[in-house]
Design a protein that fits this description.
CATH class of the largest domain in chain A: Alpha Beta
Number of helices of chain B: 9
CATH topology of chain B: MetI-like fold
CATH superfamily of the largest domain in chain A: P-loop containing nucleotide triphosphate hydrolases
Shape of chain A: globular
Largest sheet of chain B: none
Oligomer: heterodimer
CATH class of chain B: Mainly Alpha
Largest interface: A-B, 31 and 24 residues
Number of domains of chain B: 1
Radius of gyration of chain B: 22 Å
Order of helices and strands of chain B: HHHHHHHHH
Helix content of chain A: 25-40%
CATH architecture of chain B: Orthogonal Bundle
Distance between the termini of chain B: 60 Å
Distance between the termini of chain A: 41 Å
Structural class of chain B: mainly alpha
Strand content of chain B: under 5%
CATH superfamily of chain B: MetI-like
Structural class of chain A: alpha/beta
Order of helices and strands of chain A: EEEHEEHEHHHEHEHEEHH
Radius of gyration of chain A: 18 Å
CATH architecture of the largest domain in chain A: 3-Layer(aba) Sandwich
Bound molecules: adenosine-5'-triphosphate, magnesium ion
Helix content of chain B: over 70%
Number of helices of chain A: 9
Shape of chain B: flat
Strand content of chain A: 25-35%
Chain lengths: 253, 234
């Protein structure tokens, strides 16, 4: 059995009395690329945010890298320890607007991890090259296209060599012609064995890059399957209609 | 050319007074108005940043005190505040000289307005960048210092410059509490020489000169800060 990085049990979260996550169980193994699918409002973003404590879950347990925590009572220190091993890529990039591309990548290393500046910059340049943006090192976010910003954001996520990277619809804010460049970076990460949990509406990505698919509905995981199985043999009516709907939307574009 | 000479002959005395008074007005400007402005505005900025951060970070209790402070200060006239501190406080045993009283009142008064400017500038920094900061391992203070505050200062720079220019002119109110700043100096010369229009125009022009210099500095400052100016686009 591959080694278990993350195991969440019974995650619940309500916003103003409305239960948005209603007991989510999820396991992620090292090297997994898990695609999280589901219709709008099903709780995908909230799940990712709870896993990284951008949102506090109301209850549930999280085992991370062998250590177990009660989500409701977790301390700031424990949160920091878990975050040190994770990274997050946002739908709208969220690059630091007052920092150049390179500084966006090195900021966390230098400020939070006290990496010597020179070493951090070498690492930063290596990662910018990796996402094909070495020549943009001194550009500010507003001087970059959406696709370039997202690639810088991915470089920033890689900076501290995380055990798992969470992606929340990394290509949804992009013009269609820019989606490819970001997806190919994520694909290359999958090929090098990075562990990733990716919320996405890109079915070809889910089918061809991820090894596992999680389908969410109404704050629960309705189906979980290897992607080959999910796309070829799903039986559930609900999932079939979801896939058809996505297909129709893609055809419209 | 003739008419200029005639005009001068007719108004010789007034023009001479105006010319001779120029240094007598400018010197209190440089020695009192400018230090009063610089000191008051510096303290105002310290107050403003502290008050804005307390509110932005939702510090309990202190936050309510800050709201109260802003409510009182913005809701009462500056002139009344000056009178209260300079003429009122001595009756409870606090006697301040005019300049000190003026610095205190201007700092506290301007601090309240600038605090609101700073607070809205802080709140204009997208929350997503703060979350991104947490995700790369930074703590709250690191995020504030390195991500939020620099952007907030950039946003607040033009309105704060506005406040500074406003303050240069407001310092003339200190004339009411015996501070011999530019305007008080002008009034004295005017009374002694029975010349009013020319002298008040003169002092107005000197205020205009000060403001113009500040506006120029503001432009330069904005340019320097504009490296990531297209924040609005993001
Ligand atoms: N901060 C919040 N306050 C109140 N309600 C929220 C908040 N965040 C999310 N919700 C609600 O929780 C539900 C799930 O939202 P979530 O963003 O997790 O869905 P999603 O699956 O990511 O949807 P999408 O595909 O549109 O991104 C929605 O009904 C949403 O309105
Ligand atoms: Mg979402």
């Amino acid at each position: 059995m591959a080694d278990l990085i993350l195991n969440a049990q019974g995650i619940k979260k309500s916003f103003g009395g409305v239960e948005v996550l209603r007991g989510v169980d999820l396991s992620v193994y090292r090297g997994d690329v898990v695609a999280v699918l589901g219709s709008s409002g099903s709780g995908k973003t909230t799940l990712l945010r709870c896993l990284n404590f951008l949102e506090r879950a109301d209850s549930g347990t999280l085992s991370f890298d062998g250590e177990s925590f009660e989500l409701a009572g977790i301390s700031k220190k424990q949160i920091a320890a878990i975050r040190a091993k994770t990274a997050f890529v946002f739908q709208n990039y969220n690059l630091f607007a007052n920092k150049t591309a390179l500084k966006n990548v090195t900021e966390g290393l230098i400020v939070a991890r006290k990496t010597p500046k020179k070493e951090a910059e070498e690492r930063g340049m290596e990662l910018l090259s990796r996402v094909g943006l070495a020549d943009k090192r001194d550009q500010y976010p507003h001087e970059l296209s959406g696709g370039q910003q997202q690639r810088v954001a991915i470089a920033r996520a890689l900076a501290a060599d995380p055990d798992i990277i969470y992606f929340d619809e990394p290509t949804s804010a992009l013009d269609p012609e820019l989606i490819g460049e970001v997806l190919s970076v994520i694909r290359s990460l999958a090929e090098e064995g990075r562990t990733m949990l990716v919320v996405t509406h890109e079915m070809s990505f889910a089918e061809n890059v991820s090894n596992r698919v999680v389908f969410m509905e109404d704050g629960r995981i309705l189906e979980e399957a290897p992607s080959s199985v999910f796309f070829r043999e799903v039986k559930s009516e609900r999932i079939r209609s979801f896939l058809n709907m996505i297909k129709k939307e893609e055809e419209k574009k | 050319m003739q008419w200029i000479t005639e005009l001068y002959e007719q108004n010789k005395r007034v023009i001479d007074v105006a010319i001779q008074s120029f240094p007598k007005i400018l010197i209190p400007g440089l020695k009192v108005t400018i230090p009063l402005t610089v000191l008051s505005f510096s303290f105002a900025m310290i107050i403003a940043v502290a008050v804005a951060m307390i509110q932005y970070s939702r510090v309990p209790v202190l936050r309510q005190l800050c709201r109260f402070y802003i409510w009182v200060i913005r809701g009462t006239p500056l002139l009344v505040q000056l009178y209260l501190v300079f003429f009122g406080l001595p009756s409870v045993g606090i006697v301040l000289d005019g300049f000190t009283a003026a610095v205190i009142v201007f700092s506290i008064n301007e601090g309240a307005y600038c605090a609101e400017t700073m607070r809205s500038a802080l709140e204009a920094v997208p929350v997503g960048q703060i979350e991104a900061g947490y995700c790369v391992g930074m703590n709250y203070f690191q995020i504030m210092r390195r991500i939020v505050l620099p952007q907030a200062f950039r946003t607040a720079f033009p309105p704060l410059s506005n406040s500074l220019i406003g303050m240069v002119k407001d310092t003339s109110l200190a004339a009411n509490i015996t501070v011999v700043e530019m305007f008080m100096a002008t009034q004295r010369i005017a009374r002694a020489n029975y010349v009013t229009l020319a002298l008040y125009i003169e002092v107005a022009l000197i205020y205009l000169l000060f403001s113009t210099v500040l506006t120029f500095i503001q432009r330069r400052g904005e340019k320097r800060l504009s490296a990531y100016a297209a924040l609005r686009k993001a």
